[in-house]
Amino acid sequence: MRDYVKSKDFHRHMRSLLASRFQELGWESQAAGRCSFVRGRRVFSLQVSQYSNSLIGAKFTINMTEGSGAASDTRILRHLNDADRAAGKAVEERIFARLPRPDPDPDVDVVGDHGQTVSVKLGDLAKANPRQWDGPFDVWLPYFSKTDLDDWAAFLLPRLDRLVAPSSPEMTDPLLWAQRFRGLFGFFRRK
Question: Please, is 8 exposed, middle or buried when counting C-beta atoms within 10 Å of its C-beta (0-12, 13-18, 19+)?
Answer without folding.
Answer: exposed
